[in-house]
Design a protein that fits this description.
Layout lengths: L1 H20 L3 E4 L9 H13 L3 E3 L1 H10 L10 H10 L4 E7 L2 E8 L4 E8 L7 H26 L55 H10 L8 E18 L4 H5 L4 H4 L4 E5 L4 E10 L12 E19 L6 E24 L7 E18 L10 E17 L2 E10 L6 H7 L2 E18 L2 E17 L9 E17 L1
Parallel strand pairs: 1-2, 1-3
Antiparallel strand pairs: 3-4, 4-5, 6-7, 6-8, 6-16, 7-9, 8-9, 9-10, 10-11, 11-12, 12-13, 13-14, 14-15, 15-16
């Protein structure tokens, strides 16, 4: 009986030893765009928990890459992995890059691509189901790598003596890079939706149904970022004129001796030089993960502030013009609802250029406060009004998009201070225009440069403290906005 037990133990040892001796080795490379290596750590943890492959540490990989004089992106390129595999054996390397999805690329020891897929991420991580499916896909790919070794060597799949062949595949380190073409030994499509996929090499006729369906839905997905921030400087030029008894400043200015025809003072404000300020804008699209038109529904809030020291020219009734230096504060606040349609352009269907057209509407305020201690004849400007408009952004390349917007202001009437001086009632109109360029600089960071113009016109009627027959006030702002953007 003892002999039978020893025989059984020996048989089990012989049966298990090949699997232990020839466990497939996998290294998970650094993923471009993976902040704090969150995704790489998640994939390593899942592989370690599954226990279906032997993990090669990234530390050992870096040390061998350094000995091979491979630095930066070259160390994680397919050709670099093939070089490292000569001194640090492994069957498969997992690489890729992160945008709004994880683009996974699995290479064998020669650098040939075995498998690739775009897998959705949320909050910088894979879902539980997708990380399990990816673990099975990596395991199956690693099991297919010895078959690739056999094809290239012309011998057994598990022959350890076959030297690796260096790959000429290009570097894949970002969404704009060219993907390497799978080699002749590339692994066929896999069905990782079945539990047994992690136990055996894939069958040629099988398909990676779950990840492929999810990947096709998310790869090349066109949608806004969840949050976009813009911080810019502003260079603004403001002009203002107020004329009694007319419907436009031009009519007053071309009238001979207007002060005798139209009773009341006229006022001009023109900044001798543009004044500086700052602008902050935030856009949020809480439904951007939806695969419907709801993804284009969002909110926008903005705030700008600038300071101006300039001269005010006043023409009193029956007197000569007077000039006075005043300090003023320009402030604008807006809150908008956004409804946009997003579209993709470009030949790269997996990572298209994203543009949009849409509508926006909400409430806006614009105030121009004159230092009250200056005793200036120039009134302030205090407006609160609904605003509606169109906007569009058309990308040319990732680093350049053409932006435009137009807005109509519904009765942006002057405040009580202006009304008290110029008339009993007022009717106001206004509009805004914007043109500019924007683009990516590095990762989620970009730039935005634009020209914005706003125009307002107030027609006063009745008797005020300064004018007895009403009149008109015309105000405009022309500004250059320049600064940085970030999206998440």
């Amino acid at each position: 009986m003892r002999t039978s037990f020893l025989g059984l133990l020996l048989a089990l040892t012989v049966a298990l030893l090949p699997g232990l001796a020839f466990a497939q080795r996998v290294v998970v490379l650094e993923l471009d765009g993976d902040r704090s290596n969150k995704l790489r750590d998640q994939i390593e943890t899942a592989l370690r928990k599954a226990g279906t492959v032997e993990l090669v540490s990234i530390k050992r990989y870096r040390e061998m890459a350094s000995k091979k004089h491979l630095r930066g992106s070259k160390a994680y390129a397919p050709a670099g992995a093939a070089q490292v595999a000569k001194g640090l054996p492994f069957e498969a390397a997992v690489g890729g890059y992160v945008t709004d999805t994880l683009s996974v690329h699995i290479y064998d020891f020669t650098g040939a691509e075995l498998w690739t897929r775009d897998v959705p991420i949320k909050g910088g991580l894979l879902s539980g189901d997708n990380v399990r499916r990816l673990t099975k896909a990596i395991t199956a790919a690693a099991q297919a790598a010895p078959q690739a070794r056999a094809v290239e060597a012309g011998g057994d799949a598990e022959s350890p003596e076959t030297p690796p062949v260096e790959s000429d595949a290009p570097v894949i380190r970002g969404p704009g890079a060219t993907r390497s073409e799978p080699a002749a030994s590339a692994m066929p499509a896999m069905d990782v939706s079945k539990d047994e996929a992690a136990e055996a090499a894939p069958a040629p006729a099988s398909t990676d149904s779950d990840l492929e369906a999810e990947g096709h839905r998310r790869s090349g997905r066109v949608a806004p970022p969840l949050l976009k921030l813009e911080l810019t400087g502003t260079t603004t030029f403001r002009s203002y004129c107020a004329r009694p008894g007319v419907t436009s400043c031009h009519d007053y200015d071309i009238t001979p001796n207007p002060t005798t025809v139209y009773p009341g003072p006229s006022i001009d404000f023109a900044a001798g030089a543009p004044y500086l300020g700052g602008y902050l804008d935030a856009e949020a699209f809480p439904f951007q993960s939806f695969d419907s038109i709801a993804k284009g529904l969002g909110l926008e809030a903005s705030y700008s502030r600038g300071y101006c020291i300039t001269s005010v020219v006043s023409q009193p009734q029956g007197g000569g013009p007077t000039t006075q230096q005043v300090m003023s504060v320009d402030q604008r606040i807006s809150g908008m609802l956004l409804a946009r349609y997003y579209f993709g352009l470009g030949s790269d269907k997996a990572h298209p250029l994203v543009g949009h057209v849409g509508l926006r509407g909400g409430l806006e305020t614009r105030t121009f406060d004159v230092d009250p201690s200056a005793g200036s004849a120039l009134p302030g400007s205090h407006r609160v009004y609904p605003a509606f408009g169109l906007q569009a952004s058309v990308p040319i390349i990732r680093q350049l998009a053409l932006d435009g917007a137009a807005s109509y202001y519904l009765n942006p009437h002057a405040g009580v201070n202006e009304l008290a001086g110029f008339g009993a009632s007022v009717s106001s109109t206004g509009f805004g225009l914007e043109v500019g360029v924007s683009g990516e600089v590095y990762g989620p960071f970009g730039y935005h440069v634009s020209f914005k113009y706003q125009s307002f016109k107030d027609e006063f009627t009745g008797t005020g403290q300064e004018w007895t027959q009403g009149g008109v006030a015309e105000e405009s702002y022309a500004g250059i906005f320049w600064g940085a953007t970030a999206h998440f």
